[in-house]
Design brief:
The complex is a heterodimer of chains A (381) and B (496).
Chain A lengths: L1 H8 L2 H28 L5 H9 L12 E2 L15 E5 L15 E7 L5 H9 L7 E7 L3 H18 L9 E6 L11 H4 L2 H22 L4 E7 L3 E3 L4 H7 L4 E12 L4 E6 L5 E2 L2 H9 L18 E2 L15 E2 L7 E5 H5 L14 H11 L4 E11 L3
Parallel strand pairs in A: 3-4, 3-6, 4-5, 8-14
Antiparallel strand pairs in A: 6-13, 7-14, 8-9, 8-13, 10-11, 12-14
Chain B lengths: L19 H4 L14 H26 L4 H9 L11 E2 L1 E5 L15 E8 L6 H10 L7 E7 L6 H13 L11 E5 L10 H5 L1 H22 L4 E7 L3 E3 L4 H6 L5 E9 L7 E3 L9 H9 L34 E2 L7 E5 H5 L14 H11 L4 E11 L5 H62 L5 H21 L2 H17 L1
Parallel strand pairs in B: 3-4, 3-6, 4-5, 8-12
Antiparallel strand pairs in B: 6-11, 7-12, 8-9, 8-11, 10-12
Helix pairs in contact in B: 4-5, 12-13
Classes of the chains: A alpha/beta (381), B alpha/beta (496).
C-alpha cells in the first residue's frame, strides 16, 4: 500500500506546483510551433495574398476579410476607419481571369441548404482567395435551419486548409417575408404564385447584390442553392468567353423509368430567344401583367435554350445570343450590375427577375449569351 | 487514535440497542480485513493509463506537428494561436431587418451612407468639408463615399488630404465611419461648364452618364449595415447642419428639400434652382406617349412643356418647413432615402425609364415599386450660384460700364484737383504779386514825393509779375483752362 499512502500525503501545494510545471512544459513545447507558423505564411503566397487584401477595419466591403486585431488611437480610443481609395479604372473583367487575379463574387439566394451544393462550391478550381460568397436567407423557420447548416459547413471550410478557404463569406437575412411559405416544388411552380414569388425573389437578389458587390469585384456568379453539380472549372470556362452576361444550360439528373437508368432532362426554361408571338402577347398586356415561360396556359413559342442542347455530341463552347436568361447559374460582369442592371421586382417590359434583368442589360447596351452545350445540374427532389 | 473505540470493519465495539443480538447475527469479535473499495483498487491502474496517454500525446505532438491543431484549442483555451490562423475574420453575418431606418435614426445608431459624386470640384471642396464638419448627426454613424470621375484639376489630391485631416482630427467625435474614395472615369466628352451642362441638346446623354456614375458609386459603397443613403452635391452653398435629422424625422422612403440659389441683386436676389422635383401631369404623360423608347424628358426647357407642378415654385419663405408634397421625379442635389429602397433594386436609370433618366427616373422607379417619394416645399437649401454665359456677358458689360464710370469719375476728380491747384497757385502768386506791386506802388508813391517819374515803370513791373504765372498753365493745360484762367485774372485785374 506504499503508493496509496504516498498519494494520501500529497498536499494541494504539491499538486498545484506539479500542474504549473506541466503547464509550463506544455507552453515550452508549443510555443516554438506557433512562432514557426507565424513565419510560415511569408513563403506561402496564398496566405500572403489573403493578408494583403484584408481590410484593416470591420467597416469595409463585405468582399474583403478584415483583421481581427484593431488599431488604437494614441489616447487609447479605437482608431477611426482609414480613408480607402479604390481605383475602378484598373478593375478588369477579361478572359484571362485567373492570370489577372480577377475577383469573383458568388451570390446565392438560399432557401434550403444542400450539402451537395456546398461540396460542389468548395470543389470549384478557381483560386479560392479570389472568391467571395454572399448568401441571402429568408427570416423563416426553414431559413433558420438552413443558416445553421450553412454556418456549420462554412466553419469547416474556413478553418480547413488555407488554400480551400474562401476570401470572405457574408450571410444576409432578408428584411421582408417571402409571399409563400412553402418551398414545395409543386406549390412553387404554380402559375398564379409565380409573379409574387419571382418579385420577392428579385428583391432578395437585389438586396444581396447591391450590399455585397463592393469595389473590387470583377465578376458576379449567380448560383442557386439547388445547383448540386457543375464542372469544377465552371468559373474559368464561363469567364473565358468574355461576355457581359453568359448563362450555361441547367439540366436535372433523374431516374428514367422507361430506360431503367439515370438520365438527364432540361430544367431551367427561362433562357430563351424572343418570338414574335411573345412580343404580340406582351403588346396586348396591361402594364402590370407579366409573361411567363414554361406554362401551357401561355404559349409564347419562344426558342428555349433548354431544348437546343445537343446531349449526344456536345460542343461546350458553342454560344448563342439570348433575350431572356435564367438565374440558376449565371455569370455577369460586375460592370453590368454597376451600370444599374438589376432584377426588376416589377413588370419591366412584362418581364420580372432574371428575364427582366436580361432585358435591362440589353437596354443598357450589353448583349446576353447562352451556352446550350455547357451543363450544370439541378437538385432532384 | 480515536478509532480504538470501534472495530476496524466500522461497527461499534458494543451493541447500542438492547435488542442488538437480533440485529447483528455476525459475531463482532471475528477478525475481517477491511474490504478495499473498488475505486482504490483500480486507482493505480488508472493512474498508469493516464500517464501513458499523456506521454503518448506529447510524443505524438512532437513527432506529428499536424496533430497540434487538434489539441491546441482545447488545451490552450485559445491563448496560443492556431498554426493555420491568419488572424482574419472572413465570415460576416447581417440581419437586414435591423437596417430598416426609422424616424429617429440617431437614437438607434442607424448608419447613413453619404454619397457625393465629384468632377473638377476642387474649388467647392473647402466649403463642402466645412458643411461636413458641422453636421450634427453622430459622425461615427456616417460613412462617406466619393466618386472622382474625369477630373482634370487637383480634386483627388485635395480630397485625400482633407479627408485625412478630417479622420485624424484631435476631436474623436469629428472622425467619420468608413470612407471610400472611388476613382472611375467614364470618358465624358460633355463639358462641365454651366452653358453646355444645362443646354437642352446635351441633357439626355449627360444625364445618362451622370446616372451611370451614381450607380457605380452606390453599388461599390452600399453595405448591409446601412439604414439610410444620403445623396449630397458638393456645390451646396448653405444647408441646415441638422439636415439629416430634419429629413429623417419625416420617416419617408425618399425625401428631398427645396433647392434655391441666391442671385446677384440685378437678377432679382434669388431663384428656384432644382427643377427636377415635380409631380406628374397629364400633359407630360401624354407627351411621354408620343416619344420614342430612348427619348428622355428633361424638365425646365421650353422644348418639353410639361405643365408639371414643381417643388421649387411652391416655396413660401414663411411657410411651415415640415409641409410635405408627393413627388414623382426628384432632383439630385440632396436626397435622403432609406437604404431598403436601393436594396430593393431602385437605382438611377442610365437608360430611358418611362422616358426619364437619372434622379427623375429614380423617383419614377421608386414610385413604381411602391415607395413613398416626398418633397418639402418650404424647407430650403441653397445651391451655389454659378453665372451662366449670358449672365457672365451681362456681368462683363456691367463691369465695363462700372470701370468706365469709375475712370470718368477719377478723371473728373483729377481735373478738379488740378484746376484747384492751379487756382491756388495763381491766387497766392497773384496775392504775392499784388503785394509786390502794392509795395512797388507804395515805394513809387514815396519816390514820387521826391522824384516824380512816368507810369511806364509800373507797367513793366506788372508784366514781369504776370509772366511766371502764365507759363505753367500754357505747358500743361488745354486752351479752355487757360482761357478760364486768363479771364479770371482779367477779372481780378479789373477789380484792382
Amino acid at each position: 500500500m506504499a503508493v496509496a499512502r504516498s498519494m494520501r500525503r500529497t498536499s494541494p501545494i504539491t499538486v498545484f506546483l506539479a500542474a504549473l510545471l506541466a503547464f509550463g512544459f506544455l507552453c515550452f513545447l508549443l510555443s516554438p510551433s506557433s512562432s514557426a507558423a507565424a513565419a510560415a505564411p511569408v513563403t506561402d503566397s496564398s496566405s500572403q495574398l489573403r493578408r494583403e487584401d484584408a481590410a484593416e477595419h470591420p467597416l469595409s466591403p463585405p468582399t474583403k476579410p478584415f483583421l481581427k486585431s484593431q488599431a488604437v488611437r494614441e489616447d487609447g480610443q479605437k482608431a477611426p476607419p482609414p480613408v480607402m481609395h479604390y481605383n475602378l479604372n484598373e478593375l478588369s473583367s477579361t478572359s484571362e481571369s485567373i492570370k489577372k487575379g480577377e475577383r469573383v463574387l458568388i451570390l446565392t439566394p438560399l432557401a434550403r441548404f444542400y450539402q451537395e451544393f456546398w461540396d460542389n462550391v468548395v470543389k470549384l478550381s478557381y483560386p479560392h482567395e479570389f472568391i467571395s460568397i454572399g448568401f441571402i436567407v429568408p427570416k423563416t423557420k426553414d431559413g433558420d435551419a438552413a443558416v445553421t447548416a450553412l454556418e456549420q459547413a462554412i466553419s469547416e471550410t474556413q478553418s480547413g486548409p488555407v488554400d480551400s478557404r474562401f476570401a470572405s463569406i457574408s450571410i444576409l437575412r432578408q428584411d421582408f417575408d417571402p409571399p409563400i411559405q412553402s418551398q414545395d416544388e409543386k406549390e412553387r411552380h404554380k402559375m398564379s404564385n409565380q409573379k409574387a414569388r419571382r418579385e420577392s425573389m428579385s428583391r432578395a437578389r437585389n438586396s444581396l447584390l447591391f450590399t455585397t458587390l463592393g469595389p473590387s469585384t470583377s465578376w458576379v456568379l449567380w448560383l442557386d442553392s439547388d445547383i448540386v453539380e457543375t464542372p469544377a472549372t465552371l468559373i474559368q470556362d464561363l469567364t473565358a468567353h468574355n461576355r457581359p452576361v453568359i448563362v450555361p444550360n441547367c439540366f436535372q439528373r433523374y431516374y428514367n423509368k422507361d430506360t431503367k437508368k439515370m438520365d438527364v432532362r432540361p430544367y431551367d426554361f427561362n433562357s430563351w430567344i424572343d418570338s414574335s408571338t411573345a412580343e404580340e402577347l406582351a403588346g396586348m398586356m396591361g402594364p402590370d401583367e407579366i409573361l411567363l415561360e414554361g406554362y401551357a396556359e401561355m404559349p409564347t413559342y419562344r426558342t428555349l435554350m433548354a431544348y437546343m442542347a445537343n446531349t449526344g455530341a456536345p460542343r461546350p463552347s458553342r454560344e448563342i445570343e439570348l433575350d431572356g436568361v435564367g438565374g440558376t447559374a449565371l455569370l455577369v460582369k460586375a460592370d453590368v450590375h454597376r451600370d444599374g442592371a438589376m432584377f426588376p421586382a416589377f413588370p419591366f417590359y412584362h418581364l420580372v427577375e432574371t428575364e427582366g434583368f436580361a432585358k435591362m442589360a440589353k437596354r443598357l447596351g450589353y448583349s446576353v449569351y447562352g451556352l446550350p452545350d455547357y451543363f450544370v445540374y439541378h437538385y432532384n427532389e | 487514535m480515536n478509532r480504538h473505540h470501534a472495530f476496524s470493519n466500522g461497527y461499534a465495539a458494543y451493541p447500542r440497542g438492547k435488542a442488538s443480538h437480533n440485529t447483528f447475527p455476525v459475531s463482532p469479535h471475528r477478525f475481517q480485513p477491511r474490504p478495499q473499495p473498488a475505486l482504490r483498487r483500480r486507482r493505480q491502474l488508472l493512474q498508469r493509463l493516464c500517464l501513458i496517454a499523456a506521454i503518448s500525446t506529447l510524443l505524438l505532438i512532437l513527432i506529428f506537428p499536424s496533430f497540434r491543431a487538434l489539441f491546441l484549442p482545447a488545451v490552450s483555451l485559445g491563448l496560443v494561436s492556431s498554426a493555420e490562423d491568419l488572424q482574419l475574420e472572413t465570415v460576416r453575418y447581417y440581419d437586414l431587418s435591423k437596417m430598416q431606418g426609422s424616424g429617429s435614426g440617431w437614437e438607434h445608431g442607424e448608419r447613413v451612407l453619404m454619397c457625393t459624386p465629384l468632377r473638377d470640384a476642387a474649388s467647392h471642396l473647402p466649403m463642402f468639408f466645412s458643411h461636413l464638419r458641422n453636421l450634427t448627426y453622430p459622425h461615427n454613424l456616417i460613412d462617406l463615399a466619393f466618386l472622382v470621375s474625369d477630373s482634370e484639376d487637383d480634386t483627388m489630391e485635395m480630397l485625400s488630404s482633407m479627408l485625412d485631416d478630417l479622420q485624424n482630427d484631435a476631436d474623436p467625435k469629428m472622425s467619420f465611419g468608413e470612407i471610400s474614395v472611388i476613382q472611375k472615369d467614364f470618358g465624358q466628352q460633355v463639358q462641365q461648364d454651366v452653358e453646355s451642362r444645362h443646354g437642352f441638346a446635351a441633357q439626355a446623354s449627360r444625364r445618362k452618364l451622370m446616372a451611370q456614375a451614381r450607380n457605380w458609386l452606390l453599388s461599390a459603397t452600399l453595405r448591409p449595415t446601412h439604414s439610410w443613403v444620403y445623396w449630397r452635391d458638393a456645390d451646396v452653398l448653405t444647408a441646415p447642419t441638422t439636415i439629416l435629422e430634419d429629413l429623417m424625422r419625416h420617416d419617408k422612403d425618399v425625401i428631398v428639400p427645396n433647392v434655391w440659389r441666391p442671385l446677384p441683386d440685378w437678377l432679382g436676389g434669388e431663384q428656384p434652382y432644382d427643377l427636377n422635383s415635380w409631380q406628374e401631369s397629364e400633359t407630360a404623360l401624354a407627351l411621354a406617349e408620343t416619344l420614342d423608347e430612348d427619348a428622355v424628358i428633361v424638365e425646365g426647357y421650353a422644348e418639353y412643356a410639361t405643365w408639371r407642378p414643381h417643388l421649387a415654385y411652391l416655396r413660401d419663405p414663411y411657410g411651415d418647413p415640415d409641409m410635405e408634397m408627393e413627388l414623382d421625379g426628384v432632383g439630385g442635389v440632396s436626397i435622403l432615402a432609406k437604404a431598403r429602397v436601393f436594396r430593393a433594386g431602385v437605382h438611377f436609370p442610365a437608360f430611358s425609364f418611362e422616358k426619364h433618366a437619372e434622379t427623375e427616373g429614380f423617383g419614377k422607379m421608386a414610385r413604381r415599386m411602391g415607395f413613398s417619394v416626398i418633397g418639402l416645399p418650404h424647407y430650403t437649401i441653397w445651391h451655389l450660384y454659378e453665372p451662366s454665359v449670358d449672365d457672365l456677358q451681362h456681368m462683363e458689360e456691367m463691369e465695363q460700364e462700372r470701370l468706365e464710370r469709375e475712370r470718368e469719375e477719377q478723371e473728373q476728380a483729377e481735373r478738379a484737383e488740378r484746376v484747384q491747384t492751379l487756382f491756388k497757385d495763381a491766387k497766392s502768386q497773384w496775392e504775392d504779386d499784388t503785394a509786390n506791386i502794392q509795395e512797388a506802388i507804395d515805394k513809387e508813391g514815396k519816390s514820387q514825393a521826391s522824384d516824380y517819374s512816368s507810369s511806364s515803370d509800373v507797367d513793366s513791373t506788372k508784366g514781369s509779375a504776370e509772366g511766371p504765372v502764365a507759363q505753367p498753365a500754357a505747358k500743361e493745360q488745354g486752351s479752355a483752362a487757360i482761357t478760364q484762367e486768363e479771364s479770371t485774372k482779367e477779372r481780378k485785374q479789373a477789380k484792382q
